[in-house]
Amino acid sequence: MGAGGRMSVRPETKTPDSPVLKRVPYSKPPFTLGQVKKAIPPHCFQRSVLHSFSYVIYDLVIATIFYYIATNYIHLLPHPFPYLAWPVYWFAQGCVLTGVWVIAHECGHHAFSDYQWLDDTVGLVLHSSLLVPYFSWKYSHRRHHSNTGSLDRDEVFVPKKKSNISWFSKYLNNPPGRVITLAVTLLLGWPLYLAFNVSGRPYDRFACHYDPYGPIYSDRERLQILISDAGVLAVAYGLFRLAAAKGLAWVFCVYGGPLLVVNGFLVLITFLQHTHPSLPHYDSSEWDWFRGALATVDRDYGFLNKVFHNITDTHVAHHLFSTMPHYHAMEATKAIKPVLGDYYQFDGTSVFKAMWRETKECIYVDQDEGEKDKGVFWYKNKFE
């Protein structure tokens, strides 16, 4: 596509606060998707109902244990320790429920089992319980996978070109501004994306994940969007009745706090997977699916990699083969690294340091000087 056959130059970018970051090649890869797939053991593509459900059961058992401990013991702690114990519970429960979110995400990719109806049923139940419109997100996320790295057609965390950034962006390019940006993004980013398509692909009219007649969806998808809305409304009504019986504070402490953690991690994980100074983005003259799928990065969340079912450190393989179950993704990632070579990107920078660096350095995308004729764009942060 476009000038994909040209050899790419891989300059190193460096800032005073970051190590050398080697750019991912943007030329057409010297290998094919078939060659990458051939390097992966065939069993990695096999989906098992029992194996997949074992992770659902495990996560729900852990979540139930945390719920039991919180509701039976935190109130017994002497003052002021309950004020410290509740945030600990929110974080721990939020991490476990993020794993539940990831399994529902896997259902949306038909990676849970060989049965589409089972995947959709499990995904609908799990995502609705976390106030996520399952089918609505499934279809928009599928388009994200079909258009990753495209400045014109990608669906989420689409970077702005320098000419399109907001007027106030330069005033947020400082430590206090970055704190505000991160706080708003992590706390409100997910509901704002679902309700108002914030950070999503621009459409010619208002786009919303709850609107079955919105521009995101086709006619054949509209009934399922209504089903998603019904699932979210059913859970919301259950929470309303629970708040009436137990009190709003109880519902927030038990459910709302962990949900904020889930939403924050979801946004953070997605942001760091697709935002990195070394990753290219392409306009329509240069983009193709293969190079777009390779324009993502694996990250290291420490012990949370396992809690999140390795969605964090196997994301490159996931974008290449999204129907592969997560419990084979680590083996597949190890197998494809020698084939991908420099096209595989892993950044072991700590999560806190990485999100600060990316917020600082990845403000907009632009072409390099002297290469304005190419449809390849890189993250930059200079306003002059």
TrEMBL record:
<dbReference type="InterPro" id="IPR012171">
    <property type="entry name" value="Fatty_acid_desaturase"/>
</dbReference>
<dbReference type="Pfam" id="PF11960">
    <property type="entry name" value="DUF3474"/>
</dbReference>
<feature type="transmembrane region" description="Helical">
    <location>
        <begin position="88"/>
        <end position="105"/>
    </location>
</feature>
<protein>
    <submittedName>
        <fullName>Delta-12 fatty acid desaturase</fullName>
    </submittedName>
</protein>
<comment type="similarity">
    <text>Belongs to the fatty acid desaturase type 1 family.</text>
</comment>
<feature type="region of interest" description="Disordered">
    <location>
        <begin position="1"/>
        <end position="20"/>
    </location>
</feature>
<dbReference type="Pfam" id="PF00487">
    <property type="entry name" value="FA_desaturase"/>
</dbReference>
<keyword id="KW-0472">Membrane</keyword>
<dbReference type="GO" id="GO:0006629">
    <property type="term" value="P:lipid metabolic process"/>
</dbReference>
<comment type="pathway">
    <text>Lipid metabolism.</text>
</comment>
<feature type="transmembrane region" description="Helical">
    <location>
        <begin position="177"/>
        <end position="196"/>
    </location>
</feature>
<feature type="domain" description="Fatty acid desaturase N-terminal">
    <location>
        <begin position="25"/>
        <end position="63"/>
    </location>
</feature>
<feature type="domain" description="Fatty acid desaturase">
    <location>
        <begin position="85"/>
        <end position="344"/>
    </location>
</feature>
<keyword id="KW-1133">Transmembrane helix</keyword>
<keyword id="KW-0812">Transmembrane</keyword>
<feature type="transmembrane region" description="Helical">
    <location>
        <begin position="55"/>
        <end position="76"/>
    </location>
</feature>
<feature type="transmembrane region" description="Helical">
    <location>
        <begin position="249"/>
        <end position="272"/>
    </location>
</feature>
<dbReference type="GO" id="GO:0016717">
    <property type="term" value="F:oxidoreductase activity, acting on paired donors, with oxidation of a pair of donors resulting in the reduction of molecular oxygen to two molecules of water"/>
</dbReference>
<keyword id="KW-0560">Oxidoreductase</keyword>
<dbReference type="InterPro" id="IPR021863">
    <property type="entry name" value="FAS_N"/>
</dbReference>
<feature type="transmembrane region" description="Helical">
    <location>
        <begin position="225"/>
        <end position="243"/>
    </location>
</feature>
<dbReference type="GO" id="GO:0016020">
    <property type="term" value="C:membrane"/>
</dbReference>
<dbReference type="InterPro" id="IPR005804">
    <property type="entry name" value="FA_desaturase_dom"/>
</dbReference>
